[in-house]
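pinned: reference chain
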Amino acid sequence: MGGKVGMFKFVRLTSGLPLLVALSLVSCGGKDRSAVKPQSKGLPSELLLVTDRAVGESDVMDSLNALTQENMAEVMQPEPMFRVLRVSKRNYARRHMTMHTKLFVTLDASLSKPMMGVAHDVSATPQTEVTLSAPNLQELRLFLSRHKRELTDALLDGQLLVRMADLRKHHNAHVYNEVRKYMGLSVFVPQNVCAVKRGKRFLWAGSNLQERDLNVVIYEFPDDGSVMRS
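pinned: its structure tokens
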């Protein structure tokens, strides 16, 4: 069987730091094709930036640096989106193939306009490769100025996939079991989120730390569409 599980939940995250909660809302499906590929590598928020010579020696690098070093939204303290490792296309080697998040930026004179693509699990899992090609530097600059959000969203989605995969392996089993039992959800939270309190159609889990506290609050509403009305 495959497909999404029919349920309506509202999840609210409250924290001084970003907290990722992996929700499994998909029922059993086909075979796991990721087993044949190696585990991806790289530090959290690490991004491998691969450019050809024309891009690497141009002022476009200033735009790429500014784009990848923007501060994360909704984070109290300044924190860049990515830790960037840069390598030229000529020096891209086997050791780079299994990096979990990669951005390729090149020029291709055969193109009539810039093109952006996203591929997953090409050489490892979980992995996201974003490719951006343009016919010339002017078109590339224009694309980056107009579509910065789409590009960073694709890269951040790749980072989320990495974090979700890690949480599936290293999560708090007690919180998982409690949420599964009382809310019918599969929720994976960091291991230090260990305390649980329940109410009617309500569940809270937190780390109970005096500083850098992490909290997850889950509410359940009747699926009658009323909560979606403005």
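why pinned: Confidence is low (pLDDT under 50) at residues 1-22, 24-30. Residues 52 and 89 are 5 Å apart (CA to CA).
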